[in-house]
């Protein structure tokens, strides 16, 4: 498929990342259209603009939408992507789950590289900052009957960003949500479906009311097994062991999660991917064996957790609210690879240079 490129007449020369995550957009966007019987067509990189949709577009009524999140990093004048193929492969798995068309992964990675290259002025050069990339697909067919859409748009926008949490790696407080659930096995929890995040916002709101940064979700059946946190997967270091919830169909298979597990294994650690209950974490804290908790995700990278807060205001303090040694090491290693400061031959295939 041909990729048409229309450039802005006066492109921005340099942009600083705003304090609030994801509020400034790149000068250009990628858009591609789909129609049953034709397939994907009219792929174009063009100046950033508002979308024109019918009020009857199915995305507005039935939420048929999926998305991804990735970043581009600057290192001594070079720009690189971190495992972009993994993101588009996951996007395809999400698409299949809610009856949307899949995309050609190689074509999308190439189009993304060209988009980032055109808007390279938006890639921050300051330490710890990056260009956040948001690919998403929406159903656009104008009809209000409940049916699978026959028309879609695939879009990519970009945004220069600082750390997701303003304190950087400073430990955050997490609220343990025990009333609502995020997903169940057989549902859409493993996919990056927009509706998953809409349903989680009430937990985020409750977390904010408790003075916490994120909400931790428990399973939807027994309501005791930890699944994930609002914008990240979660890891625990208990009595020297590293544990993360097993991918059971309701937990998002995070790219950062996968990368962290691979890094830890290459460093000689054993990572247990298994069910872990909130009671096990409480018991470990009471025994003094709960050493560290950290989250992983594209937006947050690595987030140190310093406190768990419960509905009844019970609290668990983790590692005296200090960033743990393992958490710091994983953060340094992962960001070193992403920004090109660590030249690890075992991870060369993770990096796509632009």
Automatic annotation (TrEMBL):
Reaction catalyzed: L-isoleucine + 2-oxoglutarate = (S)-3-methyl-2-oxopentanoate + L-glutamate; L-leucine + 2-oxoglutarate = 4-methyl-2-oxopentanoate + L-glutamate; L-valine + 2-oxoglutarate = 3-methyl-2-oxobutanoate + L-glutamate
EC numbers: 2.6.1.42
Superkingdom of this protein's organism: Bacteria
GO biological process assignments: isoleucine biosynthetic process; L-leucine biosynthetic process; L-valine biosynthetic process
Positions carrying N6-(pyridoxal phosphate)lysine: 192
Keywords: Amino-acid biosynthesis, Aminotransferase, Branched-chain amino acid biosynthesis, Pyridoxal phosphate, Transferase
SUPFAM superfamilies noted in UniProt: D-aminoacid aminotransferase-like PLP-dependent enzymes
Classification via PROSITE patterns: AA_TRANSFER_CLASS_4 (PS00770)
Keyword Transport: no
Keyword Nucleotide-binding: no
Pathway(s) served: Amino-acid biosynthesis; L-leucine biosynthesis; L-leucine from 3-methyl-2-oxobutanoate: step 4/4; Amino-acid biosynthesis; L-isoleucine biosynthesis; L-isoleucine from 2-oxobutanoate: step 4/4; Amino-acid biosynthesis; L-valine biosynthesis; L-valine from pyruvate: step 4/4
Cofactor(s) named in the record: pyridoxal 5'-phosphate
Molecular function GO labels: L-isoleucine-2-oxoglutarate transaminase activity; L-leucine-2-oxoglutarate transaminase activity; L-valine-2-oxoglutarate transaminase activity
Family classification: Belongs to the class-IV pyridoxal-phosphate-dependent aminotransferase family.
Listed PANTHER family: BRANCHED-CHAIN-AMINO-ACID AMINOTRANSFERASE, SUBGROUP IIII AMINOTRANSFERASE
Alphabetical list of NCBIfam families matching this protein: ilvE_II, PRK13357.1
Record's protein name: Branched-chain-amino-acid aminotransferase
């Amino acid at each position: 498929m041909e990729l048409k490129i229309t450039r802005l007449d006066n492109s921005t020369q340099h942009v600083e990342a705003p304090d609030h995550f994801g509020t400034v957009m790149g000068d250009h966007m990628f858009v591609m259209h789909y129609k049953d019987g034709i397939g994907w067509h009219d792929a174009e990189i063009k100046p950033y603009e508002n979308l024109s949709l019918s009020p009857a577009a199915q995305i507005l009524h039935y939420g048929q939408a999926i998305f991804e999140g990735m970043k581009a990093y600057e290192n001594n004048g070079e720009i690189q992507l971190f495992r972009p193929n993994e993101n588009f492969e996951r996007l395809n798995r999400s698409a299949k789950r809610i009856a949307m068309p899949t995309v050609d992964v190689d074509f999308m990675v190439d189009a993304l590289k060209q988009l980032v290259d055109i808007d390279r002025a938006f890639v921050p050069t300051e330490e710890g900052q990056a260009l956040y990339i948001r690919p998403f697909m929406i159903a656009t067919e104008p009809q209000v009957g409940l049916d699978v859409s026959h028309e879609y748009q695939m879009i990519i926008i970009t945004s220069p960003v600082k750390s997701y949490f303003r304190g950087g790696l400073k430990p955050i407080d997490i609220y343990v949500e025990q009333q609502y659930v995020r997903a169940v096995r057989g549902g859409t929890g493993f996919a990056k479906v927009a509706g998953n995040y809409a349903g989680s916002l009430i937990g985020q709101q409750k977390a904010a009311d408790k003075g916490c940064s994120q909400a931790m979700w428990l399973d939807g059946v027994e309501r005791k097994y930890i699944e994930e946190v609002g914008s990240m997967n979660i890891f625990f270091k208990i009595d020297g062991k590293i544990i993360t919830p097993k991918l059971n169909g309701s937990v998002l298979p995070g790219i950062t999660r996968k990368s962290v597990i691979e890094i830890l294994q290459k460093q000689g650690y054993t990572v247990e991917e298994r069910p872990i209950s909130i009671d096990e974490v409480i018991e470990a804290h009471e025994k003094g064996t709960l050493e560290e908790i950290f989250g992983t995700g594209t937006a947050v990278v690595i987030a140190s957790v310093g406190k768990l807060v419960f509905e009844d205001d019970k609290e668990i303090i983790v590692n005296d609210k200090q960033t743990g040694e393992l958490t710091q090491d994983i953060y340094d290693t992962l960001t070193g690879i992403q920004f090109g400061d660590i030249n690890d031959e075992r991870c060369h295939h993770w990096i796509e240079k632009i």
